[in-house]
Design brief:
By secondary structure, the protein is an all-alpha fold. The chain contains 17 helices and two strands.
Length: 374
């Protein structure tokens, strides 16, 4: 049995990580995964490992200084805050705004007020804005009346990162079609590469997303479904996509699972009227992932993935293996896959988690960043 509670491990990690900026890396801008990884690790029952993992994480890659707050944003004046969406230099202003909001109102009210304003920019930071927000929400929900200032501050930073890296994808998605998720994924055409993939391939494809075959049509092909069911379809299909593409750099496609799994944590705290537009934006993001990061269907929708996981360990070992592996994406992916598996016991979830543990470089070995789009 762990000797440290989830709450204690989480708050200790937030204190240890408090000085880190929003992003890290040399020559690229990668999201700070420290708070997300620590919270997911605690949820995996690895609370005794959280402090040690935080130390490993801090040493792995230098974090950038966060932009300082300069000009106040007025949440009641759209002409004040809207121009600051997607302006990373305003991250400090966004953080200060959300700290004020959370000091004055319950966090659920702040979340419900800002969710529809930020939702069109769900792609922000390769979905790390919404994912960081969701991990903070889970911590606050678990804490109840005992939530700490560190936890409220983490929600402020999650929302601030989402706002500062806000990026709208072209088009307006709607759940008004007739296709199930698996059919929509199978029907989406993929664009072959003209040559070898380079470090800018993903960014170039994202910039021309509206011109890629099938993208515009994909935004309205998905049938409306009950939120929990559609979230399960999204996560299981993208576990399948992940397993079917061993040739792709192994990090970006992980977010096809972790983003909807993160949204599942937040929807119970939002008005029901926000559920369907949220699911539509998630499908838009997933369509973009498929078009940006894959060039064919490869082994999607086949049983080929079974050959990749002949040594799949017992489910109760996957969390410990993720902690030992150390990479923050592997930790978050393993937690999301196991949580989704508990709701829908599809063997592709644990197989995908195990595949990531083998494909992604261990934290102590330096990791890699190629192919990431922010």
């Amino acid at each position: 049995m762990p000797s440290i509670s989830y709450s204690d491990a989480l708050n200790d990690a937030l204190e240890r990580l408090d000085d880190l900026g929003y992003e890290r890396g040399q020559g690229v801008d990668l999201a700070n995964h420290g708070p997300m990884g620590a919270e997911a690790l605690a949820l995996l029952g690895q609370t005794d490992e959280v402090a040690r993992w935080v130390g490993r994480y801090r040493k792995a890659m230098e974090h950038h200084e966060p932009p300082a707050a300069r000009f106040a944003l007025d949440p009641a004046d759209e002409s004040s805050w809207r121009p600051a969406l997607g302006a990373f230099r305003r991250a400090g202003d966004w953080e200060r705004l959300f700290l004020r909001e959370l000091a004055g109102d319950p966090w659920r009210e702040v979340l419900a007020r800002w969710w529809p304003r930020l939702l069109p920019g769900l792609f922000a930071g390769l979905t790390h804005g919404v994912i960081r927000t969701a991990h903070a929400v889970r911590g606050l929900d678990a804490a109840g009346d005992g939530a700490t200032a560190l936890q409220r501050g983490e929600l402020a930073r999650g929302l601030a990162y989402w706002a500062a890296r806000y990026r709208e994808l072209p088009g307006r998605p709607r759940l008004r079609g007739a296709h199930e998720l698996s059919e929509a994924v199978a029907a989406l055409p993929r664009v072959p590469l003209d040559g070898p993939a380079g470090p800018d391939t993903g960014r170039q494809r994202l910039d021309m997303l509206a011109e890629l075959p099938g993208y515009g049509e994909s935004l309205e092909v998905l049938a409306p479904r009950q939120a929990s069911r559609l979230l399960s379809e999204m996560t299981v299909q993208f576990a399948d996509v992940y397993l079917g593409h061993p040739e792709v750099y192994p990090v970006p496609l992980i977010h096809g699972v972790t983003a909807p799994a993160a949204v599942r944590l937040v929807l119970p705290h939002l008005p029901p009227a926000l559920h369907e537009p949220t699911l539509a934006r998630l499908w838009q993001v997933q369509s973009a992932f498929l078009l940006v990061f894959t060039s064919d269907r490869r082994d999607e929708g086949t049983a080929a993935w079974r050959a990749e996981s002949p040594d799949l360990p017992p489910l109760d070992e996957l969390g410990a293996r993720a902690a030992e592996h150390g990479d923050e994406h592997v930790i978050k992916f393993t937690e999301a896959c196991l949580r989704e598996y508990a709701l829908r016991p599809d063997p592709r979830y644990p197989a995908a988690a195990f595949a990531a543990q083998r494909r992604v470089t261990r934290l102590d070995d330096g990791g890699g960043v190629a192919g990431v789009v922010s």
